[in-house]
Structure formats: structure tokens, C-alpha cells
Design a protein that fits this description.
Pfam families: Ribosomal_S15. The chain is an all-alpha fold. The protein is 77% helix and 0% strand. Helix 1 packs antiparallel against helix 2, helix 2 packs antiparallel against helix 3 and helix 3 packs antiparallel against helix 4.
Length: 92
């Protein structure tokens, strides 16, 4: 659970900047928190198909936001990927 403690540190930094709740970085951060919670839930409850579907929907939203950010500002994208410890998607 080292990643969760790291996320808490980032969330405290994000809470200081409450005016940025609509920013792409904050949205990706909140989706990442939800993804990590749902993943740990699904490790215990393997047949919870509604949660699996919810996880897939959130993963798609985060993927679209990251694609948008990578097109608009590559520096912010790389910084966010590094902070949240997310793998960069493979390109075709």
C-alpha cells in the first residue's frame, strides 16, 4: 500500500489548490484513486461484475483525459505520469 500513502501526499497538495478541481490533472488524480480502490475491491470479490464494468468505464475516461493532456501539453503529461506512477500507453 505504498502507492496509497503517496496518493495521500499528492491529494494534500491538490487540496491546497482548490480552484483547480476542474483541471485535467485533478480529474486524472481522482480517477486514479477510484481505480486503485476498485482494483483492491475486485481482488477480494472476483465475481462483482458491476464493479468490473465501473472500473472499465473509469479506465476509459482516464485514458481519454491523458490522451488529451499529452496532445495539449506534453510536459504536464510527463510530470503527471511520473507523479501517479502510471504506465504510458503503447502507441500503435
Amino acid at each position: 500500500m505504498v502507492k496509497n500513502s503517496f496518493i495521500l501526499i499528492i491529494s494534500q497538495e491538490q487540496e491546497e489548490k482548490e480552484e483547480n478541481k476542474g483541471s485535467v490533472e485533478f480529474q486524472v488524480f481522482s480517477f486514479t484513486n477510484k481505480i486503485r480502490r476498485l482494483t483492491s475491491h475486485l481482488e477480494l470479490h472476483k465475481k462483482d461484475f458491476l464493479s468490473q464494468r465501473g472500473l472499465q468505464i473509469i479506465l476509459g475516461k482516464r485514458q481519454r483525459l491523458l490522451a488529451y493532456l499529452s496532445k495539449k501539453n506534453r510536459v504536464r503529461y510527463k510530470k503527471l505520469i511520473g507523479q501517479l506512477d502510471i504506465r504510458e500507453p503503447k502507441t500503435r
